[in-house]
Amino acid sequence: MVATAEFASVIDSSAQSLADLPPEVTAIVAGIDTTSIAPGVARRLAEIGFLPGETIRVLARVPGGNPIAVRIGTSTFALRRHEAACVRVHGQQVFRR
């Protein structure tokens, strides 16, 4: 998968969807898959911090999968499942409190 030049990253084919990441697991953002989401949504995700190399953690998910609470740095966001599905991640690690 290749992101647009605007996001300037090639997404590793082994990266998985943020929507599939279990709660309390950290990972590194690989990029945004712009082939399956509207350009405005991809741009918004990038603007709020979903950028390659950023550490991300799923805090919680509501039964049924919508929304998903995630943390990047000190910011917490609620994403719809289809938004989270476009964020590709790798390098999972269980978060220990």
Enter the CATH topology name.
SH3 type barrels
Number of domains: 1
Low-confidence stretches: 1-9
Which strand order does the major sheet show?
1-6-2-3-4-5
- Topology as H/E string? EEHEEEHE
Name of the CATH homologous superfamily:
Ferrous iron transport protein A (FeoA)
Outline type: globular
Largest sheet: 6 strands, antiparallel
- Tally of DSSP helical segments: 2
Q: Which percent band covers the strand fraction? A: 35-45%
Would you tell me the structural class of the helices and strands? mainly beta
How many beta-strand runs?
Answer: 6
Estimate the mean pLDDT confidence. 83
Work out the radius of gyration. Answer: 12 Å
Helix content: 10-25%
Task: Give the distance, in angstroms, between the N- and C-terminal Cα atoms.
Answer: 34 Å
Which CATH architecture?
A: Roll
CATH class, named Mainly Beta
